[in-house]
From TrEMBL:
This is DinB-like domain-containing protein. Residues 42-166 form the DinB-like domain. InterPro entries: DinB-like (IPR024775), DinB/YfiT-like (IPR034660). It comes from Paenibacillus woosongensis.
Length: 175
C-alpha cells in the first residue's frame, strides 16, 4: 500500500512538522522499521542514560520514549474512530500530564522499547486493514480537521521527530 502525503487542510497546522518529516515512499515500511531501529540504537543503554535530561525542565530519555508510545496510542485511537466513520469530535490530550503521571523512570529502556514495539504492531494491524474509503475519511480532533491518512503520517513523523531529538540531545556522551 502506498499512500500519498496528506494535503494542508487535512490536519491542524501544528502537525505539519511531523508530516514533513516523513520521506516519500512506503509508509508501512517506515512504520515497520522504526521499532527495529530504536531497539538497535537504544536497546543497550543503561538506566543512567535513560534517566538523563539534557536540560533543566526537560524530559528524561525514558520519558521521551514513553511519550512517543503514549502519543501513538492516542493517534491510533483517533485513526480507528475516524477511519470507521465516527464523526464525534475527539478531544486533545495533555502530553505533559501523561508524562508526569506515567512514572517512566521505574521502567527500563528495554521495557519502554518493547512497549513501543507492541503498540506499533497494533497500529500496523489497524493500518493494514483500511481500504481506500477509510483512508479518505476525515473527522475532528483537538478542535480541528484531521484525516485518517494524516493520522498515519503524524504517527510516523512524530516518532521520527523525537528519535532525532534523542540522537541529537540525549545520546551525546552516552554511546
Amino acid at each position: 500500500m502506498t499512500l500519498s502525503k496528506p494535503q494542508s487542510g487535512e490536519y491542524l497546522e501544528h502537525f505539519e512538522e511531523y508530516i514533513r518529516e516523513v520521506p516519500e515512499g512506503e509508509l508501512i515500511s517506515l512504520l515497520e522499521l522504526q521499532p527495529e531501529e530504536a531497539m538497535l540504537k537504544l536497546g543497550t543503554l543503561s538506566d543512567e542514560a535513560g534517566n538523563y535530561k539534557y536540560a533543566e525542565g526537560k524530559w528524561s530519555l525514558k520519558e521521551v520514549l514513553g511519550h512517543i508510545t503514549d502519543t501513538e496510542r492516542v493517534m491510533s485511537y483517533r485513526l480507528l474512530r475516524i477511519a470507521r466513520g465516527d464523526k464525534t469530535p475527539l478531544p486533545g490530550f495533555n502530553e505533559e500530564l501523561f508524562v508526569s503521571h506515567a512514572n517512566f523512570e521505574r521502567l527500563s529502556i528495554q521495557q519502554l522499547l518493547k512497549d513501543f514495539t507492541t503498540v506499533r504492531k497494533a497500529t500496523l494491524s489497524l493500518i493494514r486493514q483500511l481500504d481506500d474509503e477509510a483512508w479518505q475519511r476525515a473527522g475532528t480532533a483537538s478542535g480541528g480537521p484531521v484525516s485518517s491518512r494524516a493520522l498515519a503520517y503524524i504517527i510516523a513523523g512524530h516518532a521520527i521527530h523525537h528519535f532525532r531529538i534523542i540522537r541529537e540531545r540525549y545520546l551525546i556522551g552516552h554511546m
